[in-house]
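Long-time lurker, first post. I've been practising inverse folding by hand and with some scripts of my own, and I keep getting stuck on stretches where the structure tokens seem ambiguous. Below is the full token string for one chain I'm working on. Before anyone asks, I'm not after the true native sequence, just a reasonable design that respects the backbone. If someone could post their per-position residues I'd love to compare against what I wrote down in my notebook.
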């Protein structure tokens, strides 16, 4: 069996053609049609001049078309590029240019922004628009539905398992970076993850075909409801890749934003087995909805749910206990980043949850700043390093690649920047990012990028940005700002003026004006001072 995404899914579509592969609202796509539609769109990409290793952006909301478009890119041996749908023009131009994208899939609701940026991206060979009920503002596009009608399916081909799979994440400079993996190695990693999660899979991924036949006989396929965006690793890897790898179903909703009542209704309608979310930002409203339904005498039917998986931010003990009160299931809290998995925490009614405590993954080390590899029970704090599946590197950034992916005692590790303590019992307590990264509802926000955007306003002299703890989002963005002499601007006006430079989720939730922003003599930011100022303002 070829170890690439498209070949695995072609094999599965041949075994369970009539099974549900994708569900979005009331639109159901079988495995046969998932393969067929992806093959037709692959032909359209080839006709536009794309081929092996070509990059294509996915500027899309959660939808069946997102996964069909991605599979089409895989089919031609290309590299899909995840695009944050919250990005404004400057951010989009940077990402699509940096990734060397040659095509872009986008929903019609973003057509005005595509029109705005298209002239700045001469290397794009095809703009592919997906209808979503909104009026198109861009005339120079190919229409997804028309391509399905006009294109013949692409013939199946042999693909290189060393073809790059890439996911863009933020970098410490604030600019997104493409984290590169080899497809074959990534598939083996996903397979091992499934086994570690307790799924009945063979030791060797090459025996997957036999296992799919067994699932077909027993009708024990996973149905995964993806509550978070597919554009992020949590939604794509844990929400879509894992069930699809086992011939299961990926369930999404077209609605932007998160509606917990709609989600629980979908769970009932589709008989969802797995739910994938990002921490308390999702789990708390989910719990509130369950409580309301119970109080009204019309509780949701959760009987099909076996596991809720969260990754990206802390998932608190109190919320976990609340969910377990409603239904006996497994709650899995995974810790990691686009650059590597670090640990996990599993909670059930018989195994009560604990916040920020994780069982360390095999091949994970914690190394102090002086180079000491920490042993259990050490009081020192160290940087988490993961081995096993280590990215090839960052796309077009050799310097950052060398800093993040490096050898320790002859073993290659990934050091994304997370600090932790290694407890006596072998668990790790996560302490956070040493880079001052702000994690708000699963979105990684880098202070430097927000600071630079704020400082583009003429009234601002200097600025530091920090994260302050927030019950709903994990952290919220706070800016500490000093103004130019004889200049004046209020908080609302400054935030509004900054809105054209960065996505809305990166904007500060509060601006604190000070006479002078504190820096060290060498000009380095004093984030400790800024954080104290920010925390004091919320007391």
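-- Answer (accepted) --
I ran through it position by position. Result:
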């Amino acid at each position: 069996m070829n170890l690439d995404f498209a070949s695995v899914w072609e094999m599965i579509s041949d075994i369970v053609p009539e099974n549900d592969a994708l569900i979005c609202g009331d639109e159901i796509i079988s495995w046969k049609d998932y393969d067929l539609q992806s093959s037709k769109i692959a032909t359209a990409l080839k006709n536009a001049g794309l081929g092996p290793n070509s990059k294509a952006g996915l500027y899309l909301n959660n939808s069946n078309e997102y996964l069909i478009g991605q599979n089409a890119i895989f089919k031609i041996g290309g590299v899909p590029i995840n695009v944050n749908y919250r990005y404004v023009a400057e951010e989009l131009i940077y990402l699509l240019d940096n990734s060397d994208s040659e095509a872009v899939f986008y929903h019609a609701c973003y057509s005005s922004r595509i029109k705005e940026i298209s002239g700045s991206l001469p290397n794009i060979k095809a703009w592919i628009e997906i209808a979503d009920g909104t009026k198109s503002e861009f005339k120079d596009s190919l229409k997804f539905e028309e391509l399905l009608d006009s294109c013949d399916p692409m013939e199946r081909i042999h693909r290189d398992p060393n073809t790059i799979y890439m996911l863009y994440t933020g970098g410490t400079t604030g600019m997104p970076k493409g984290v590169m993996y080899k497809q074959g190695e990534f598939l083996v990693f996903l397979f091992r993850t499934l086994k570690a999660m307790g799924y009945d899979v063979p030791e060797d991924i090459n025996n997957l075909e036999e296992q799919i036949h067994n699932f077909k006989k027993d009708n024990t396929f996973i149905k995964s409801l993806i509550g978070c965006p597919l554009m992020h690793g949590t939604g794509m890897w844990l929400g879509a890749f894992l069930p699809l790898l086992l011939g299961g179903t990926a369930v999404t909703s077209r609605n932007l934003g998160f509606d917990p009542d709609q989600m629980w209704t979908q769970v009932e309608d589709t008989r969802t087995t797995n739910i994938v979310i990002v921490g308390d930002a999702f789990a708390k409203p989910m719990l509130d909805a369950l409580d309301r339904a119970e109080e009204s005498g019309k509780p949701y039917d959760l009987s099909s749910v076996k596991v809720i998986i969260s990754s990206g931010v802390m998932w608190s003990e109190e919320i976990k206990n609340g969910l377990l009160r409603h239904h006996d299931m497994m709650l899995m809290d995974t810790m990691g980043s686009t650059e590597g998995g670090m640990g996990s925490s599993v909670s059930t009614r018989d195994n009560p949850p604990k916040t920020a405590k994780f069982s360390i993954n095999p091949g994970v080390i914690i190394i102090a700043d002086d180079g000491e590899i920490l042993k259990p029970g050490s009081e020192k704090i160290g940087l988490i390093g993961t081995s096993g599946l280590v990215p090839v590197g960052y796309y077009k950034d050799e310097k950052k690649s060398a800093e993040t992916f490096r050898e320790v005692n002859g073993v290659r590790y990934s050091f994304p920047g997370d600090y932790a303590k290694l407890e006596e019992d072998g668990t790790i307590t996560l302490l956070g990012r040493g880079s001052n990264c702000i994690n708000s509802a699963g979105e990684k926000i880098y202070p430097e990028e927000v600071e630079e955007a704020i400082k583009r306003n003429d009234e601002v002299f200097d600025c530091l940005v920090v994260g302050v703890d927030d019950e709903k989002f994990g952290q919220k963005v706070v800016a500490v700002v000093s103004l130019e002499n004889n200049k004046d601007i209020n908080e609302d006006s400054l935030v509004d003026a900054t809105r054209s430079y960065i996505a809305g989720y990166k904007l500060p939730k509060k601006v604190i004006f000070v006479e002078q922003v504190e820096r060290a003599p060498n000009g380095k930011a004093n984030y400790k001072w800024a954080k104290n100022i920010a925390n004091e303002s919320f007391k």
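A couple of notes from the structure itself: The CA atoms of residues 466 and 531 lie 6 Å apart. The chain has three domains: 5-257, 363-387+402-433, 438-537. Happy to go over any region you disagree with.
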